[in-house]
Each structure stands twice: as C-alpha cells, then as structure tokens.
Amino acid sequence: MSMDAERRYLALIYGALLLAVVVVGLGAFTRLTEAGLGCPDWPGCYGFLTVPQSSEHIAIASEAFPDAPVEIQKAWNEMIHRYVAGALGLIIAAIAFFAWRGQRRNRVLPTTLLGVVTFQAALGMWTVTMNLMPIVVMGHLLGGFTTVTLLFLLAWLERRRIVGDPMASVESPHVNSKLKVLVVSALIAVMAQIALGGWTSANYAAVVCTELPVCETDWLGRYDPSAFHPISPVKETYQYGVLTFDQRVTIHATHRIGAMVVALLILMLAWSVRKTLGGRASLMLTATLALQITLGVTNVVAYLPLSVAVAHNLCGLLLLLVMVKTTVQIFSPASVSVKQVPSGDTGRLSHG
C-alpha cells in the first residue's frame, strides 16, 4: 500500500472516532431531553423517513400512533441521533472493508467494531420497542463508549504503524507488578462507574439526592440492593422511571460512593506513573478527574443543567480513554521496535 493510501485510511479512522464522540454526545442529549421515545417506531419516525411536520403528516402520525402525540423537537432530537449513528455505522463498515484489503492493517479491531456497531443498532431499536427499559438504555450507552474506545485503540495502533512513534525506541523504566495491579483496578473502577452512571440515568435517579457528599436522606437505612436487578418490573413504559424512591436513592448513593473510589484510585495512579510515564501522563489523569468531579458536583448543586449533564457524560468518556491509554502504555514492553519510513520515502511502506 502506498503511504498516501495509508494516510487516507488513518484519516478515515480519525473521522470515525470524532463522529463516534459526537454520537455519544447526541445520545446523552437525546436521553436528557426525554427524546428517547420522540419517535415511537424504528428506524423511521411515525412511519416516515423524517419527522412529520405538515398538518397532513401529523394527522397520519396521530392516527397511526394515538398514544404517542407528535412532539416535533423531541422527534428531531431522536432522528438526528439516528442519522448520525447510521452514518457512523457506514463509515465503520468501510473501515472494516479497507482493513481486509490491506496486508499489514489491523483486522481484529475493525471486525470487532463492525460487530459492536451492528449490536448497537439492535440496542437502539430495542430502546424504542421496549419503551426505554433501563438495562437496554444502559447497554446502549455502554455500547457507544465501547465503540469510541475501540476506534481510539485502532487509531493509536494504526498511527504507530503508519507514521511511527517517536517514543517507541526509548527505554521506559521498569514497571512493577503493583503498578499493573493499580492501573487495572482503576480501569475496572472507571468502567463500573460509567455503568453505574448509565444505570442512574436510565432509572431517573440523577436528582433524588441534592446534597453532598452522599445524600441528604437516610440512604443507609433506605439502601435496597434490589435496585440493581437487571430485569425491571414489567411496565408498559419505563419513561420517567418505575423504581421506588428508596431504590433510586440506593442507585444514586452507590454512584456517589463509586465516584469517591474512582477518585482515590486515579489519584494514586497519577502519583505512581510520574516516573514511569512522565509528568504529562500524570497531569492528564489528574486534570480529567478534576474536571469530571467538578461537572458532577455542578450537576448536584445546579439540579442537572442540560449542558453540564452532557459534558459530564463526555468527560466520563474522556476519562475512560485516558485510562485505556495509560493501561496500554504500562503493559507495553519496555522497548517497542517500530520501523518508521524514512522521511524522504513517499512511496511504499518499508516491510523491513
């Protein structure tokens, strides 16, 4: 493959990564504006390919879905999310196609991505057809985070292969087993906290506690582990939540405690990687954590403003990516041999 072709392939991956982040943000916006059922059917909207807006189309939609009156703004929120997600799916399919055409390209991640985004489409459909069942909503959120993470890893690996990594031939200090245990623990904690955040949002438990540090009510006395049962009570719709107040308090309090655990582990990790990965890696961990805590506290004291809630979602994604990168760096060999194309070579990649 020529260098130009490889760079175009890399640009396609970066484009997909950027679009995937936009999809996650749009998903959060759709969920927070109560537009998850803005269109009561799937993949269209009230039987149309776009949102019905004329009086004639609205009359047809009202007749077809008498229990779901047309709310144009919410319907557009939902359909824009679907359009952008559909475009992302097509781009990921193209990446998988081009990955199998290149001899040295990573094929595992693009193929996995294609499977994940296909399952994401199914989750998107079930989110509507199952009327926002919490386990499906949370799964859809986690699928979006997984898609971004896999694209991030693919972009990183392909960039190292195509462009080279200036730090690849530099010996890094020895990484002891304690640091490996710490970074894995922190990564697992971050993933669990993201899932808890998704469960909190899906069960409409985000505003049941409005004081710090945990909850103003007797959350220990109200603690109900049944709040985490994956199968919710059978209801016609799960919009606005179906759990009891005690169950929602349980979810929210657990999410708060989880945030404390994550903060402690990441601060320990940031301190520990100063000599191994350098001050920049330590600062990135600390700064991202600080931003996420600030957004979380603002959500509580300002009663979940839309812009802050969406930013909190995206910052959680950023924290996950920073943790993934840190984990990969720590588990990488001390010295990685990456052959780089000489600066004067604009033709084919060297196969060494």
List the quaternary state of the chains: single chain
Q: What Rg is obtained from the alpha carbons, in whole angstroms?
A: 23 Å
Number of helices: 10
Number of strands: 0
N-to-C span: 14 Å
How much helical structure, as a percent, in the residues?
55-70%
Q: How does the helix and strand content classify structurally?
A: mainly alpha
Unreliable spans: 167-171, 334-352
> What percent strand?
under 5%
Pfam families: COX15-CtaA
Membrane topology: Multi-pass membrane protein
Keywords: Cell membrane, Disulfide bond, Heme biosynthesis, Iron, Membrane, Metal-binding, Oxidoreductase, Transmembrane, Transmembrane helix
Protein name: Cytochrome c oxidase assembly protein subunit 15
If you had to describe this structure to a student in words, what would you say it looks like?
The protein is an all-alpha fold and 352 residues long. The protein folds into two domains: 1-51 and 60-163; 175-333, no CATH class. It is 65% helix and 0% strand. It contains ten helices and no strands. 34% of the residues are buried. Pathway: Porphyrin-containing compound metabolism.
Describe the secondary structure blueprint for this structure.
Elements: H1 3-32, H2 55-64, H3 72-101, H4 108-129, H5 134-162, H6 177-202, H7 219-222, H8 245-272, H9 279-301, H10 306-331
Helix pairs in contact: 1-3, 1-5, 1-10, 3-4, 4-5, 5-6, 5-10, 6-8, 6-10, 8-9, 9-10
Organism: Enterovibrio nigricans DSM 22720
GO cellular component, one term: membrane
InterPro entries: COX15/CtaA_fam (IPR003780), COX15/CtaA_HemeA_synthase (IPR050450)
